[in-house]
Amino acid sequence: MKLQLIIVSIFVFPTIVSAQWIKQKVESKASLRGLSVVSEKIIWAGGTGGTVLKTGNGGKTWQVIIVPGAEKLDFRDIEAFDANTAYILSIGNGDASRIYKTTDGGKNWKLQFINRDEKAFYDAIACLDRNNCLAMSDPVDGRFPMIRTTNGMTWRPIAENKLPAAIEGEAAFAASGTCLFINHQNRNVYLVTGGAVSRVLFSSIRGSKWTAVETPVTQGSSSSGIFSIAFYDGLKGAVVGGDYQKPDAADNNIALTKNGGKSWYSVKGLSGYRSGVTFISESTIIAVGNNGSDLSFDGGQTWRKIGNENLNAVAAKGRNAVWAVGQDGIVLKLHLQ
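Request: output the structure for the sequence above.
Response:
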């Protein structure tokens, strides 16, 4: 397979670190926003036109799957567990918001949930394990609707009095499937918002009390806010965002936490609006957006731009399995040395 290498040298302290984006050969032009990296070999992605991509050999070959009956849907989030099992979530008002599941590698898909509330617009899904997952919607009547499965088969709404409250003009962004995050270390669920305010809302995964924390990330317009959240462990985390209508605006696009999300502080250095972020290691973080990608080797304190590709989402399982997806079927793998 012929692969295109995009190479950038980054100076970090006295050492030169080479970061290579390796462009994959994928037979799809779908806009990709859902991404799940299971291992160094198994990666799943989702996008427009009911498209699901899958590799079981680390990107040497890619399978393009069109989910039957979902040809007009936009899959913005995917949660996979192995080469056979994955959930995918499509976005949109009313019955455009759906959840499908496969247990045979994408040969067959079971429609598990279809949204019947015309006011709801589901943004993301997050899982503690293959049987315990949550999905969340933009606010309806002042609260963020959420549904839950505890058996991997049926989804039930969470009671209204246990839902996080929304401020008028507040919403979430279905830009990368990472506005909802379950932290496996502290067992909290995190929801990040934008619009009128940029907040981090969190609760224990089985709890009913939500804590709302304001952040310094850009806010105040319908196109601005936090778009993605990631954690390294139970304490260290990052949120990124900005204003997608101002992709090159570089101020107030990232905030970090050292206490599990109880407080957030601003840092500088991102090259613009960012829709996805993930930890590669405790000190190495990558963020992506529609004007490129940035890499940090010091826990997010300083950043260097490493590419100009139009990207939507990024995910990693260690330094040998860092992947990003974006417009027109682009799939990239990052090689660090």
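Confidence is low (pLDDT under 50) at residues 1-16.
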